[in-house]
Amino acid sequence: MNQEFFHEGDLVSVQTAQPIDRMLDYKAPEGGCHLGAFVEVPLGPRKVLGVVWGAGKGDFDYKKVRSVIRVLDVAPMADEMRQFLIKAADYTLTPMNAMLRLATRAPGLGDAPSMRKVYRLGTDEPTRMTDARAKVLGVLRDYGGLAFTLKEIAESAGVTTSVVKGLVKLGAVSEEDAPRDVPYPRLDPDRGGKELTSDQAVGAKILSEAVRSGTYGTTLLKGVTGSGKTEVYLEAVAECLRQGRQALVLLPEIALTAEFLTRVEARFGCKPAEWHSGVTMTERRRCWRMVGQGDAQLIVGARSALFLPFRDLGLVVVDEEHDTSYKQEDGVLYNARDMTVLRASLNAAQVVLASATPSLESWANVEAGKYARVTLASRYGAAVLPKMSAIDMRIEDLPGGRWVSPSLQKMVEARLERGEQSLLFLNRRGYAPVTICRACGHQIGCDDCDATMVEHRFLKRLMCHQCGETKPMPTVCPSCEAVDRLAPVGPGVERMAEEAQALFPDARVAVLSSDLYGSARALKEHIQSIARGEADVIVGTQLVAKGHNFPKLTLVGVIDADLGLQGSDLRAAERTFQLMRQVAGRAGRAEIAGEAVLQTFQPEHPVIRAILGGDEEAFWTAEAAERRAAGVPPYGRMAGIVLSSPNVQEVFDLGTQMARMDGPLRKIGAQVYGPAPAPIARIRGRHRVRLLVKAEKSAPLQQALVAWAAQFKLRGELRMAIDIDPQSFY
Length: 730
Ligand code: ADP
Ligand code: ZN
Fold this sequence. Notes:
Blueprint: E1 5-6, E2 11-16, E3 24-27, E4 33-34, E5 38-43, E6 46-55, E7 70-71, H1 79-92, H2 96-103, E8 115-121, H3 131-142, H4 150-157, H5 161-169, E9 173-179, H6 198-213, E10 217-223, H7 229-242, E11 246-250, H8 257-268, E12 273-275, H9 281-292, E13 298-301, E14 313-319, H10 336-347, E15 350-355, H11 360-367, E16 372-376, E17 387-392, H12 406-418, E18 421-425, E19 434-437, E20 454-456, E21 461-463, E22 470-472, E23 486-489, H13 493-503, E24 509-512, H14 520-531, E25 537-540, E26 553-558, H15 572-584, E27 595-600, H16 606-613, H17 616-630, E28 636-645, H18 648-660, H19 663-667, E29 671-683, E30 686-696, H20 701-709, E31 719-724
Parallel strand pairs: 10-15, 10-16, 11-13, 11-14, 12-13, 14-15, 17-27, 18-25, 18-26, 24-25, 26-27
Antiparallel strand pairs: 1-4, 2-3, 2-6, 5-6, 5-7, 8-9, 19-23, 20-21, 21-22, 28-30, 28-31, 29-30
Helix pairs in contact: 1-2, 1-10, 3-4, 4-5, 6-7, 15-16
C-alpha cells in the first residue's frame, strides 16, 4: 500500500495515457487521494484516465488548476509498479503515456462494477417434477447456498438453460443480481502434486527455496521437451502460493493455454486467471481488478500480462523463453523476457526461464553468473529423444513442384501401416509464396509493400504477409492481361497438404496453421482432436513447434531445413537450431521412439551438423564465440532505427543527416551503420530506411540515442521508431 496521501485541494501531478509529453497538475478531489490512485481528470473538453504520480509542480496559477473529477474504485498503483513503468520507459525509450496505456489495457476500468444474474435454490417445490428439473435442483442442493450462472447450472446438470428459467417462474429457483468482478477461486498448493523423479525433485527444491528466500533471482530451467519442466515450475508456483504471493506464467502462444489450464486445475484444484487477446472484455476487466486487489493468485497469460497491477508478485515463469513472440514488434517495442527480469528485480521476485533451447542471451547470462541454472537431462518415463538424420536433397529423385522426397515418403508409409502419426513441417503459411504469370514472368506483388502476395487457396485470396492486405485471386495477369496463365511457385502448408493427400490417398491429412481457424477455440479443438489421433499426417507451421503433446507422433519430416539459414538476421543460426530441435522434440513423446529427418541441400552446413550431432553445448560455444568477435548481442548492444515516410527522398535525406551528425553516439564509442533501405523497403505505402547503432555492452546507449535523436525535427509524415535490442530486421 502507498503511504503518501493528498488532502482535498493539494496539488497533485497526474500521468495520463494521452499522447502529451508531460504530466499535468490537478487539485486533489473531495476526500483526498492516495499516491498511485487511478483517477478521472478533465483534459480540455474530455474526461480521461490518469494516475496520481506525485506532488504537483505548482508552476501554474493555482486558481486556474482544475480538480480531479473522481477517484476510481480500483486499487491504487503500487510504488513498485510505478518504478517498473518508469524504468521500462527509460529502457525502451517509450513515452510514459504509452507505457501507461499498456498498463491499463482493461475495458471500463472506471465504470461501476457490472452485474450479472445468478441463481440459487428457491423456496417453493415445482408443481410437476421432471427428470431435468430434478437434476437442476440436485445440483443446487449439492452446493448448499451457492449461487451460479445459468450456463454453469445448465452445464453441470446437463440440461438446457430453459429448464432453469422454467424453475425460476415456478419459484423453485431464485434469481438475483451479483457483481461480475468476483475474486478467483482459491488454489490449493498442496493438492495434486505428482511424484517427481530425482532430477525433477532437485530442480523443484532449488526453485522453491529461491521463492521462499523472498529475494530477486533468475533461474534458467533447461530440459528437453517432455522432461517435466512444467511439473517442476508448478512446484515453484505452489511455493509462491504458500507464501501468499502472486505468480504469473507467461506462454508464447494462446493455443497453448488450454492444455496448461487443465494441468493447473489438476494440480491446484481450480483454474487460474487468464490474460490474453482471446479473453472476453468482461473477463479482462475482472482479471485486471482482481490482480490489483490481490484476489487472483495465479495468472496465465501472454506477454502483456506482465503489465498487470500485481499487489505482490513473487514469481514469474517465462515458458519457452527463447520464443520470438515475447518481443512486441509494434507500438511499444519491448521484450517481455527482459522486462520480466526488470519487474522481478523491483519486486523481490523470482524468475524462471524455461526452455529446451534457451536463447543465447540467457545462456550467456548463466555463463556470466547472473542467472542460476537447473537442468533436466532426460525425458520423463519411457520417452526417448528422437533419432535425427538428414536427407540429402541433391541426390533425391524429385520432380519439380513436389517437395516430399521418396525417402521421406517411405518413412511416412511405414508410420501409416503401424497406425502412428507423421508430421510434415514447413514454416510457411498459405498455398504458395509466389504467384507468377507464365506468359510474361510477372510476379504478383502487394500494392503498398515491397513483397509478393501469398496465395491462400483455402480463403481463395492473395494475401500480403507484411500488411495483411488481401485481394481475390485474379484469373488475368495484371501486367500482360494473359488469361489463365497464373501459376503458383514454391510450397506453403496448404500446398503441402495437397501433395500429402495425393501421396497418401488413404491417410487423414490435417493442416495446422494459425490462419486457418476462425477463433482460438476452433484451433484448440483442432489441436486436441489431432492429439487424440484423429489424423495420420499433420502438415504444420511453427505453431506445432510450441509445446503441444501429440502422443502418437513418431516421425517429423522437416520439408525445408535450409529455409531459416538464409537471410541477414544475426540470429538466423540460433533460430534455425531452436526451431529444428523443438520440432524434432514433437516426435516420440510417449512410449514409442521417434525419428526426425531434415530435408536439406546443404547437409554439411555447421548448423545442420550441430542439430544432427545433438551437441548443444558445442553449438552454443561456437555461436557465442562468433557473436563475441563481432561485438553483437549478447556481447554488445544494438539499436535499430527505422525512418519511414510516403516520400522516399525525405527518408533518405533524414537518414543521411542522422548518420553524419553522430556526435552524441561517437562520444560513447558507438557506431552508426546506414542508412540503407530496410529489407522490406516499403510497408503500407511508407518507404522505410534503416540505421543500425552498435555499442559496447557497458555503454550508456539510451542516453546517447536520446541526445542524438533530439537533434532532428520530424516534420510532416516522417516517423522514427527506435528499437532497443532489435530481434527482427525487417
Ligand atoms: P516439458 O514442460 O519439459 O515439456 P512436461 O512437464 O510437459 O515437460 O512433461 C511431459 C509429460 O510427462 C507430461 O504429460 C507430464 O504430465 C508428464 N510427467 C512429467 N513428469 C512427471 C512425473 N514426475 N510424474 C508423472 N508424470 C510426469
Ligand atoms: Zn502489403
